[in-house]
Every structure is written in structure tokens, then in C-alpha cells.
């Protein structure tokens, strides 16, 4: 049993595994199993296979429901940005999962512990283990803490274009005149902040700030979208 | 409402949709929506996005549980064979889904109705709609009828190697001597049938027939695996 991992999960996520073997399996690489024969150890790969699909459905359903007007192409690009190796690897590190992986000596020496592909695998295998141990709701709760806030923090904004999305939402029932007006420009040459106001058919909808006019506009559009959704 | 589709689903799968709009959406291509503006129609693509992930998790979890000894590599190959375009397109046709797709005239004339990529999309969008309407259990019930029996019918045997799998299962606790003995060869030159007997550590486990010795051995191994699993 990887005690420190269990403490970490309890403290940071209030997650308590019923089946400790499952959690051990999720954090054990084949190289470690090979170095400890006759201990009946299992390595993470089968659980990772399952975890991959669990993350796909949880992320897909969340995006589908959160963005009811978003066309499939954008949903697919957004999902791909969220479930890709680099993202999962970052999430794994945020959760301190890198500390608890059981590796063989050769793998350890070769720096596997910080390898993006391994960290991504472990994020998936942990999710798979959580799913097997406690079902889908527990996975959703975990992902609500670890993945979904990144959407609001703008981590995937390069994939989502809030301005286009707002246009689609507002123009469902016909043309709407959408205007972004610069209302303030503060800070010095190197820390300039722009603030814009979003006006749709003459009505002020929202304001947004950013280090460029483009970012300020995206933020204003995103705020307007949140307001519209909260009213639905 | 696509009435004939609803009748077909009720008769063949005992499936009754609560939200008829959802089912319509799942069977409507963008080309049809474009030809019928101002009817507030939606096309299948968003639901297909969701259905794709639903099928992934349902198939993954089934394989994970059905083959508890199967290594990840083989699970992944098997899943890929099951969830790929050609397979989904065949399943869609088996379910008569091709009959009910709502297409624009141009698409119809270009033969889209029999296009593998469209049929695959519709299989996914139907699954997505079923999931939204009735939840995961209903999807599992559907897939139990449409996809999983294909495993037993040997449709994916080119991906699964039953002989290797049996070896893995039998040798979990140490070496086992597995032998396949040809016990009969019947039929003429062009319809030859081979029958083999599978013997593990001197004990007769099963028999298998096939149009080649190799196929007969695979079938015998598969039978032995089924017997072992049914005892677990």
C-alpha cells in the first residue's frame, strides 16, 4: 500500500479507496513488477485502458452540456486539447502523482518519473482505479476539481473562440449587431491592461479586461456567454 | 417524428424514446436541415460527438471485465476493431438505420445513404441519443444485443489470439503443457474440416473444428476459455 499517496488523496481530494490493491496497481509500472517477482504485483496498463475511456466520456458529456450551442467541430477540438498527453501530464503533476509512481531502477535512472507519457498514463490509470473502486460519480467529482476549472482559467481558450460562440448564440433568431468598445487602457508600457465593453444591438452586455484588446474582447464575450447560460 | 424508425426500434429492441426530438436529431443530416429551414431542425453531429464517447466506455468496460487476463495491447487492438468505422457501419445496417436517415436531395443522389462514414456517424448519434434519453443502462442493453454477440461469433478473432490468451490464463500459476492433437479430418478436398482436441497437462479440455488446423485450434482454445470463465 502506498501510504503517502493515500494520505495525499485524502487530504487534497477527500478520496478514500476501498480496494487498496487497485490504487497500488494504478501507480505501479511494469519495470517495478519485474524487479519484484513473486509478490503478485500488477502493473497499471489494463486500468489505464479503462481510465482513458472513462475520462473521454466524463469530459465529453461535460462539454456537451456546458456548451449547448457549440458545434461538433469545436467540441472535438476542445476535447482533444483537454484529454491530450500534455494536459493529463500536467494534471498528474498538480495532483503530485509523480511522487508516488513505483518504477524499476533503470526507469528511475532514465528520468521516467518526469516523462510526460508516463505521467499521462498514470493520470488515466488513477482515474480508471477510482472508477472501478467508487464509480462514475467519484470520477466526476475528481475531474470537477482538477480538469474543469482550467476551462474557466482560460487554459483552452486558444481552442475556444468565445467571440464566435457568442455570435452563434445571439444570432440564433436572426442578425444581431455586436460591438466591442475600448473603454479604458491602464498600466505602463510593459503591463498595459485593456478594458472593453460588449454591446449587442445597443445593449451593454458585459465588460472584459486583458493584456491585449483581443484578449479583453474574448473575456467580455465569455462573460456574456456565462450570463446568458445562467439565465437559461 | 420518424414513425417507421420508432416502430422498428420498438419491435426489434423494445426501445421507446421519451424525447422524440432527440431521436429525430440523431437521424438528421445537415443537408436535410439546410433544405428545410425555419423548421427548427437540428442535425446529428453534436449527439454523435457524445455517442462516440459513450460507445468507447461501454465497449472498454465490457472488454476489461470479460477478459480479466488480457494485456492492454490486445484490449486496445480489440477495442479498435470493434469501434471502428466499418464495424459501426455494419451494425447500423443490421439495425436498418440506413432506411431512416434524413438526407438532403444532393446527398441522397450521391449515394450518401450507403456511405460507411455516414452510417458510422448515425450509429454513434443513435447511441448518443439513447444515452441522453434513457441513460447508460439502456445503451448497454442495446450494445449487448448488437455488438457483443459478434465477439462470440468470432468476428474479431483476427485480433484476439485465443491460443495465446489460454496460455496466459493457464500459466498464471506456473508452466502448463498445452497440446493440440488432430483427431479428425473430414470432407472433400474443397470443404475439408479439421477437428482438434486440446490437452493441458494431460487433461482433455475441449475440442474445436475449423476449415484449417489453425482455426480448429483457435476454436478449441476459445471453448476452453469459455469453460474456465463460466467456472469462475
- Helix content estimate of chain A: 55-70%
The CATH architecture of the largest domain in chain A would be Orthogonal Bundle
Beta percentage of chain A is 5-15%
Q: Which pair of chains forms the biggest interface, and how many residues does each contribute?
A: A-B, 20 and 20 residues
Structural class of chain A: mainly alpha
CATH homologous superfamily of the largest domain in chain A? Ribonuclease III domain
CATH class of the largest domain in chain A: Mainly Alpha
Poorly predicted tracts of residues of chain A: none
Strand order, sheet with most strands of chain A: 1-2-3
- How big is the Rg of chain A? 22 Å
Q: Kindly, what is the distance between the CA atoms of the first and last residues of chain A, rounded to a whole number of angstroms?
A: 47 Å
Shape of chain A: elongated
Averaging pLDDT over every residue of chain A, what do you get? 92
- Total number of strands of chain A: 3
Largest sheet of chain A: 3 strands, antiparallel
CATH topology tier name of the largest domain in chain A: Ribonuclease iii, N-terminal Endonuclease Domain, Chain A
Give the topology string of chain A: H per helix, E per strand. Answer: HHHHHHHHHHHEEEH
Which oligomeric form is depicted?
Answer: homodimer
